[in-house]
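Data availability (excerpt). The following record was deposited with the supplementary files.
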Amino acid sequence: MRVAVTGATGVIGGALVGELRGRGDEPVALSRDAARAKERLRVDAYDWKAPKSEPPPLDALRGSDGVVNLLGETIAQRWSDDARREIRDSRILTTRKLVAGLAELPEGERPRVLVSQSASGWYGARGEERLDEAEPAGDDFLARLTVDWEAEADRAEELGVRVVLTRTGVVLSESGGALEKMLPFFKLGVGGPVAGGDQYVPWIHLDDVVGAFLFALDNDALRGPVNVTAPEPVTNKELSRTLGRVLHRPAFAPVPALAVKTLYGEMASIVTTGQRAVPTRLQELGYEFRRPDLEQALRAAT
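Predicted structure:
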């Protein structure tokens, strides 16, 4: 299988490309710096220098069986007006241009499937409610962003391309993501639950993010939204307690919501609220999780 990957040099993209290579597929990277991507990932790479304003090079898409779209400015930053605009445009506009590129290909040369990154933020803050893929969207900044992001990817269905929208949760990995910011505090013994700790964290290990993406590429029965989260979300309090146990450090120092909001502004809502998202579609279709247990996943990621 030939698979074009945008955002291939990111944490998820790099891991996905590695597994595609490992199983004998032909990943192709789309990057603003193709030379760097080629050297780093050891795959063919194409320059896509202005993804918000121009379609990708058609040679990168032509002959591909699938496309995985992972482009997007990091959300874990203070949300100034400029940051909010870039967070939004780097998803909405690039996905729009990607689909426009697919439309330029003759029908017989289009990829069969587009796996387009989305986020569990679709649901907004929903407390203890268990959320499968049939639940409606929330109404905060991230929820509205995700609704529009998915709508752009969904346009590829009109081209005869199967579209899978991966509503990915909080990714646990050895580099980048939520753990990178949490670990220094926990290693010093000053980590603990945030804002009371009762909010749910829709966690998932990087190995299962990659596994779910491969499953989406391979499984023709999977289309539309799919929650890429572990089978059992946990509260922030339980996540903190388990991480402390893994690191052999105390994890009882509470972090007040006000302190997080002072540090991160509106972005703090990501950690002070949450979603109890469950992977109903993956489980219905028989995906076997590689790291379904939180403690095992944290041990693998630290």
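Summary of structural features: The chain has a mean pLDDT of 93.
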